[in-house]
Amino acid sequence: MFRLRHLCIDTLREHVVMIHETAVAAGDLGFHPLDRVRVVGEPPAGGPAREITGVLNFCRNALVAPDEIGLSDLAFADLGLPEGTPVRATIAPAPASVDRVRHKLHGGRLDRAAFDAILADVVRNRYSRLELAMFVLACGLRTLDLEEVVAFTEAMIATGTRLDFGAGPASLGGRGAHRRSPARDRLLGDRTGGQASRCAGQCRGRGPPVPQRRRRRRPR
Q1: What does the alpha-carbon distance between residue 145 and residue 189 come to, in Å, rounded to a whole number?
Q2: Cα–Cα–Cα angle for 109, 110, 111, nearest 5°?
Q3: What is the mean pLDDT of residues 95-118?
């Protein structure tokens, strides 16, 4: 068992776990740098155990004591336990959805269930940077067909955070191209709003407007 330590280190969207290398050698834990580890602890007030998965790093100085496990800012916030809480660490296998990423990388197709599983692990920060790069590479090398694009989009909507702007007078939906919107005028400026509306009306269904050349006046 280790004591939980909050390390004030910003690692962007990656869970980083820090342990002293003497603790690894003394406990014969079998850890190696950049291993994927699972940190588990129980709230002092009781309740279900909480856990996070992160990338392991070793330190040799006093950043963490041999009986401590340090977590980066994001990992500590996601675990949600106070400093000093007893925690344990074990080797964590890769998420099962990584197999679906490999399937796509080898030329297979992904359905809605596959995208749901992949994105659910991504938003919970269970993917390492290498696995995220593999997912991007798989979608880039093995181009998504139309059904995959639809499934990917629906999975992103289901796992992401939605913004509701309401349906007030500033809404841009449902207006004709020749009408002006207060929101659009604020974005483009009052002078450009009318000009953009006229341009959109000219372009609709007739292709881009032909620019008119200005005639130069000959000097007298």
Answers
A1: 40
A2: 125
A3: 95
**Contact yes or no for 92/38 (Cβ under 8 A):** yes
Q: In terms of CATH architecture, what is 98-159? A: Up-down Bundle (1.20)
Q: Which helix (H) or strand (E) holds 104?
A: helix 98-105
Contact 74, 15 (CB under 8 A): yes
Distance CA 101, CA 97 (A): 7
* Residue 52 β-bridge partners: 39
DSSP letters, 171-212, are --TT--TTS--HHHHHHH-HHHHHHHHHHHHHHTTT-SPPPP
**Domain residue ranges of the chain, discontinuous segments joined by +:** 2-91, 98-159
How far is the C-alpha of 79 from the C-alpha of 72, rounded, in Å?
11
Q: Fold for 2-91, please state it.
A: Barwin-like endoglucanases (2.40.40)
* Residue in the structure block whose two tokens are 């400026």: 189
Lookup result for tokens 């939906």: 173
Task: Give tens-digit pLDDT for 191-215.
Answer: 444 444 444 445 455 555 556 666 6
pTM for the model stands at 0.64
Specify whether the CB–CB gap between 3 and 69 falls below 8 A.
yes
Which position has the token pair 């709003």? 193
In the block, residue with structure tokens 């290398």: 21
